[in-house]
Every structure is written in structure tokens, then in C-alpha cells.
Design goal:
- It is a single chain.
- The chain has about 210 residues and is mostly helical.
- Helix content is about 75%, strand content about 0%.
- Helix 1 runs antiparallel to helix 3 and helix 6 runs parallel beside helix 8.
- The chain is globular and about 45 Å long.
Length: about 210
């Protein structure tokens, strides 16, 4: 219950900070929901899966701070989230290694459409970092979807897949808002879908069967 209260307090305060353009307040409270998820995740059964998800949350926490920090640290934030996605990818591979052609095609399709849209709008010096990041998050989505319909516990597979989809959606809105067509509601859509995605990914560790 304590972790839930911390997460809600951080989320509500951050949304208030966004609405009032209080940059310092946003910087101070933005990490709290993911920090709460890390604390909550400690109660999940120990496994390689949980360890990799925890590492992903730690780098997500770093990415949250870098993206909220005064000044343009976008590339550094992108790098932190790149490592987070690689950690999630490793977690998904720890209990499912099937090829899963349909999820692969879906993930590649989503990545290609979004990347094409961003490139057509002009990425300049950010082209290479964005391409690398898009590849990593597409791979993360593929492996999350690949766990569906396997011997992986159904609840864990559904939560991880839903979390991955929400995370990809959040990052897609970031790209569209930053490079294509900024819109007023973007900060709210981005952060709410991001928190939902991180919750789904973290919650998937509670439905894991213990593996030796």
C-alpha cells in the first residue's frame, strides 16, 4: 500500500507541475512512480526475469531524470531508455525464445511506420540515435508479444505485452510531438501511457513461475 501511495502522490504532483509549467517540481517528483514500482517489484518472486525487469526500471528512472533536467539532454535520456528496453528484452528472452513470426512482423511494421514518419519530418543529427532506439524498442515489443500463447503464465504474458504496447505508444507520441506535430495534450498522453506501460511490465514479474 505504501508504494501505491508514493506512486499516486508522485503522479498527481507531476501532472500538477505539468499543468502549471513548474519545471523544478516536475524534475523532483517525476521519478517517484517508477521508484515506487522498483520498491513494489522487490516483493515479486526472485528470478532472472525479475532482475532484468528491475534493471530496466533503474535505467528508466535515470531516463526520467535526464529528460526532465533543465537543458536538452534528450540524447542521454534516449540512451538510458535504450538500455532499459534491452533489459526488458533480456527478461522476455529468459523464459521464451520462440521465433514468433507474426509478432515479429507486427513489431517491425510498427517500428517502420513510426520511423518513416519521423525521418520524413527531418531528424538531422538525431537520425542515428533514433534509428538505434527504434530498433531496440521494436525488438522489445516483438519479444513481449512472442510470449503470448506459450507456456509462459498467461497473466504474465498479457501484462508484459500490454505494458510493451503502452510503452511503444508513449514513445511514439513523444516522437510525433517533438518532430512532427506538437499538440497541447501530448505531455499528459505521454506520461500516463508511460506509467501504464511500466506498471504492466513490472506487474508481469508477479505472475512468473519460479525458474531455477
Amino acid at each position: 500500500m505504501g508504494w501505491l501511495i508514493l506512486a499516486l502522490m508522485g503522479a498527481v504532483t507531476f501532472l500538477y507541475g505539468v499543468s502549471t509549467h513548474a519545471a523544478l517540481l516536475c524534475l523532483l517528483v517525476k521519478p517517484l512512480p517508477v521508484l515506487a514500482l522498483l520498491g513494489w517489484l522487490h516483493d515479486a518472486p526472485p528470478s532472472d526475469y525479475r532482475r532484468w525487469i528491475s534493471l530496466g526500471l533503474i535505467f528508466s528512472l535515470l531516463g526520467d531524470v535526464l529528460l526532465a533536467w533543465p537543458g536538452d539532454l534528450f540524447v542521454f535520456g534516449l540512451g538510458a531508455f535504450l538500455v532499459a528496453h534491452l533489459a526488458y528484452l533480456k527478461a522476455y528472452l529468459s523464459d521464451c525464445k520462440r521465433l514468433a513470426v507474426l509478432p515479429l512482423v507486427l513489431a517491425l511494421g510498427v517500428g517502420a511506420v513510426l520511423l518513416g514518419l519521423l525521418i520524413s519530418s527531418g531528424l538531422g543529427p538525431l537520425l542515428v540515435p533514433v534509428v538505434v532506439y527504434a530498433t531496440a524498442i521494436s525488438a522489445m515489443l516483438w519479444r513481449a508479444l512472442a510470449r503470448l500463447g506459450t507456456d509462459v503464465p498467461k497473466r504474465s504474458a498479457l501484462l508484459a505485452a500490454g505494458g510493451a504496447v503502452a510503452f511503444v505508444f508513449s514513445d511514439s507520441v513523444i516522437g510525433i510531438d517533438r518532430f512532427v506535430a506538437p499538440f497541447h495534450a501530448a505531455p499528459y498522453v505521454i506520461i500516463l501511457s508511460y506509467w501504464l506501460g511500466q506498471w504492466g511490465i513490472a506487474a508481469s514479474a508477479f505472475s512468473q513461475t519460479k525458474r531455477i
